[in-house]
TrEMBL record:
Belongs to the NnrE/AIBP family. Residues 224-491 form the YjeF C-terminal domain. It catalyses: (6S)-NADHX + ADP = AMP + phosphate + NADH + H(+); (6R)-NADHX = (6S)-NADHX; (6R)-NADPHX = (6S)-NADPHX; (6S)-NADPHX + ADP = AMP + phosphate + NADPH + H(+). Residues 15-213 form the YjeF N-terminal domain. K(+) binds at N63, D123, S159. Its EC number is 4.2.1.136, 5.1.99.6. GO terms for molecular function: ADP-dependent NAD(P)H-hydrate dehydratase activity; ATP binding; metal ion binding; NAD(P)HX epimerase activity. This is Bifunctional NAD(P)H-hydrate repair enzyme. InterPro entries: Carbohydrate_kinase_pred_CS (IPR017953), CARKD (IPR000631), Nnr (IPR030677), Ribokinase-like (IPR029056), YjeF_N_dom (IPR004443), YjeF_N_dom_sf (IPR036652). Binds 1 potassium ion per subunit. Keywords: ATP-binding, Isomerase, Lyase, Metal-binding, Multifunctional enzyme, NAD, NADP, Nucleotide-binding, Potassium. The gene is nnrE. GO terms for biological process: metabolite repair; nicotinamide nucleotide metabolic process.
Length: 491
């Protein structure tokens, strides 16, 4: 299925290439700017009909050109319009200069803008192409607008945001709405960009789809069922529990068993046919007293684990939730190198001193390893990648996946899921109340439950993150990990 244009993600550099190729194809570039500015004006009038004054802030490039068109269109509609510009307008070039010449609204220096009640700001200063901190005079305006709580409509991207990473470059507007054109940028859905964009509109200004698709990175997108649903096995009429696979979750000691039980239950609810908790002997009684549909098996050390692995039906394992960090965790992981493994929490931390030891064990053959690090754990396994300020979160996750030959879930409110082949998905459906103790244990269980049914590692990871977010939405504010498990639904 072809991804709709509005669902593609183009970096700012990609979009610059699209604009260049559109112009080379004899498409009227000023006509594109005209349609962009008219779309912004229409959005402003539609969503802010009570505005007493539209204040258009124009920058020195084509984003500013869009702003000049917007100001003209708003004035022609009968709205009250005030215009402020950054730098000398006479230095504008190309389409932006033409838009300035066609604009009947006379402007003032941007530093002169003083917000007042009833204003709606149209931010046409920088858009998505900014790569350095905003100038001091722009930062001052951003601060004044924020303090006055003036609504902002951003053209393309709130000024001050990096379109590739969603990171703030010194200061950035917090927009109520953002109007972008043809396709979204990663900065629209990576945090904090996603929050600062407000409601996002993607408007088709008429660039041919073939040109946009030619420059889109088809390996990157938003995490939605369209991206992975075809690879998630569905139960047929003849299915039975053994066809749906056997998932094993390792438990910690008697004082740390709850995390494994939550992972195990999440795996069962995600569709695993059978789920067993592998428990140290001293925790058997504690686990047995809290299990019903989940089975229990004693595993004391590496030798007992390897003996149990003679049963080839044990296909997928989860290690980390409540297990404890240390050499025992490392030994267990390496014993599972020919199986599918979701490595979480303590399991990840156990390899912080020798991460290559883990990567080498899973280096051959299809991807069998899923790693679920949060920010701190990511830095322990991939310290050089984590420290590279030139990389955004997607770049970091992709580099880590390639190094580890693993599917990476780089966790956070904007979790990024990456595969060794360069595919990456940004998740955007997770509600903020998922940030609670035990939430990650549930995620590991969902991913493991999907893998044990035969889903490939990357697709299981992406589907697991999305289903985890959906469960959080259903459970609602104030959820506990137990509530979250109860809200897990299979596809």
């Amino acid at each position: 299925m072809m991804v709709p244009l509005a669902d593609l993600l183009l970096s700012p550099d990609d979009m610059t290439a699209v604009d260049r190729d559109a112009a080379a194809s004899s498409i009227d570039s000023y006509g594109l700017m005209e349609r962009a500015g008219q779309a912004v004006a229409a959005s402003a009038l539609r969503h802010f009909p009570g505005a007493l004054r539209f204040v258009v802030l124009c920058g020195p490039g084509n984003n500013g050109g869009d702003g000049y068109v917007t100001a003209r269109a708003l004035q022609q509609s009968g709205a009250s319009v005030k215009l402020f510009h950054l730098g000398e307008s006479m230095r504008l070039k190309g389409d932006a200069a033409r838009a300035f010449a066609d604009c009947p609204v006379k402007g003032e220096a941007i530093a002169q803008y003083v917000p007042r009640a009833g204003d709606v700001v149209i931010d046409a200063i920088f858009g998505a192409g900014l790569s350095r901190p905003v100038p001091a005079e722009v930062e001052a305006v951003i601060v004044r607008v924020g303090e006055a709580d003036i609504p902002v409509i951003a053209i393309d991207l709130p000024s001050g945001l990096d379109g590739a990473s969603g990171q703030i470059l010194g200061a950035a507007f917090r927009a109520k709405r953002t109007v972008t054109f043809m396709a979204r940028k990663p900065g629209h859905i990576l945090l904090p960009g996603r929050d600062l964009c407000g409601e996002l509109e993607v408007f088709d200004i008429g660039i041919p789809a073939r040109i946009v698709r030619a420059h889109a990175d088809n390996l990157i997108g938003e995490n939605t069922p369209m991206q992975w649903q075809a690879k998630i096995p569905s139960a047929g009429a003849d299915t039975h529990k053994y066809k749906r696979g056997h998932l094993v979750v390792f438990s910690g000691g008697p004082n740390a068993t709850g995390a494994a039980r939550m992972s195990a239950m999440a795996g069962l609810k995600a569709g695993a046919g059978l789920v067993t908790i592998a428990s140290p002997p001293e925790a058997m009684a504690v686990n047995a007293g809290s299990l019903t549909a989940i089975m229990l098996h004693a595993v004391d050390d590496e030798a007992s684990l390897r003996a149990w692995l003679a049963d080839q039906r044990l296909s997928t394992f989860i290690l980390g939730p409540g297990f404890g960090a240390g050499e025992k965790a490392c030994q267990f992981c390496l014993a599972l190198a020919d199986r599918h493994l979701v490595l979480d929490a303590d399991g990840i931390t156990s390899f912080r001193d020798e991460p290559q030891r883990l990567f080498d064990a899973f280096a051959a053959g299809p991807t069998r390893l899923v790693l679920t690090p949060h920010e701190g754990e990511f830095g322990r396994l991939f310290p050089d990648i984590a420290a590279d300020a030139s990389l955004n979160k997607v770049d970091k996750a992709r580099a880590a996946a390639a190094r580890a030959h693993a599917a990476i879930i780089y966790k956070g409110a904007d979790s990024v899921i990456a595969a060794p082949d360069g595919r990456a998905l940004i998740n955007a459906n997770a509600p903020p109340w998922l940030a609670t103790a035990g939430s990650g244990d549930v995620l590991a269980g969902i991913v493991g439950g999907l893998m044990t049914q035969g889903a490939p590692a990357f697709e299981a990871a992406a589907a697991g993150v999305w289903l985890h977010g959906l469960a959080g939405q259903h459970a609602g504010k104030g959820l506990t990990a137990e509530d979250l498990v109860a809200s897990v639904k299979p596809l």
